[in-house]
Amino acid sequence: MGRKPKNQSANNAYQKHSKNTQDKNVFHSKVKMISRLRGMRDILPEEYVRWDEVINQARELFKYYGFLETDIPVLESQSLYEKSTGKQTDVVSKEMFTFIDKDGDKVALRPEATPGVVRSYIEHGMFNRTFQPVKLLWIGNLFRREKPQLGRNRQFSQINVEIFGEASAVADAQLIMLGYQFLKELGVTTQVQVNSIGDSLDREEYVKKLIMYFRDRKIRAKLSVDDKKRLMKNPLRVLDSKDEGTQSALEGAPQLIDNINDEARNHFIKVLEYLDEFDIPYILNPFLVRGLDYYNRTVFEFWPMRGANSGQNADSAESVEEAISRQSALGGGGRYDGLVEFMGGRPTPACGFALGIDRIINRMKEENVPMSSAGQPDIFVAQLGEAAKRQAMTFFEELRKKGYKAQQNFVKDSLKAQLEMAHKIGAKLTLIIGQQELVDKTVIIRDMESGMQEVYAFSRVFEEIDKRLK
RNA sequence: GUGGCUAUAGUUUAGCGGUUAGAACACUGGGUUGUGGUCCCAGAAAUGAGGGUUCGAUUCCCUCUAGCCACCCCA
After folding, report:
1. Which of A244, A260, A290, A395 is most buried, taking the most CB atoms under 10 A from its CB?
2. Which nucleotide lies closest to A382 by the C1' atom and the CA atom?
3. Rounded to 5 degrees, what are φ and ψ at A4?
4. Which range marks the domain in which residue A339 is found?
5. pTM over 0.80, yes/no
6. Which residues pair with A190 in a beta bridge?
7. CA–C1' span, A24 to B13, in Å?
8. Whether A272 and A401 share a structural domain
9. Alpha-carbon Rg for chain A in angstroms
10. Tell me, in Å, how far CA of A394 is from C1' of B46?
């Protein structure tokens, strides 16, 4: 009785304090709150439902195709990434979280998974495993110290899929097919872009040709300032520049795909044949090169689909869409035949790709993909009174063991509150056990939609539930 | 890392040199007994932080922080 006014006055007292504090995040407190670091995100329970869905789907699909799940350390030697990903790449040179450990070791938070997986492959002699090729699945988070944006956090999650020890084009094609299929099954339609960047000698030759091409003053003049620099530093990256001038300058440029060796070309043709066979829609993008050092031959990316008619004339609405989707590739990968040997292992052909979980989920939200209701409980167990509560708890456990999806709130004693919760979680039935039911050895079954309820003998309850949930 | 835009309850937001800073959704309590949704009533809850300018700042200016957008790069 006297409780309410007491609370109020207490609240008022707190209120005065909180007026004096500058911290909006703290509820009635003077304590200064520590908030999350820049670019770091919390995943709240409602959203975690989607994460669960994506991750479960990945496990189901890739394991079915023979991929084995592994995990690797968050922290590795800095030199692992410098050597594999490439010291010159932005990922390694600008975006790594690095520090010197107490022993003086230079260590880094993983900005990428492939180097660690390759290291693990070599270190544990996986080329000797019974089942070859070795197909690995990895799901985890990575760290890149970038300026945050939507779909670009400093801690983010990926699904990585790698195949070691298979040189044939089936492997490349199967990966592309799996990535495409995975996204499609999640309700995200994507466009696959593919290209072949040949082998390293091809690229050396090609770069020379490209530089020759840009010797022409008129053509060179069209390049943006950035791209002129890029031409010196990392010429291949000029190819996928977004600058309009650069793109027009590239119109007559020699294409990488025309300058790769016959073996690489045949390999690529086979990849495309398989894709046709699998019925995977893809487009050839001769300018797709990717930014990590270790790729050779096949490279590919998964882009969210923008509008159905992509090849048609672009009006302004479309170009806005394009700009948005350009910013967020959902995944990408390719072949990296030289990496294992380069990292100190046996010569091992390999290929793989990564999918950005955060970006996939953003896309699912944008496309309004409905949340799965797989975990939704259909029974709520309500109780009234101490003795009935105990009975209800036992009963609830029995439901779990029998495989029903039930929910409860034994902490709330009012039936009103319990029914409210039953309604909110979308239960189809509420089972009510009170003092009277306890004595009679019965249970009330309430149909939440109609509001009708009937009493059943305890012995017949499960039978009745089965009937109603069917 | 460079450039731009933004910042009001948990969320979406209204407002503006002087207001009790308004609402919606969500939340809590109530509309007498052991019964949810709809409805009605009530309650709690906000100007990101720090400095200026001003009699007075949530409003104007600066700095910081964070988010978003573009670039860079990438998932």
Report:
1. A260
2. B35
3. -65, -55
4. 45-199+260-366
5. yes
6. A304
7. 18
8. no
9. 29
10. 45
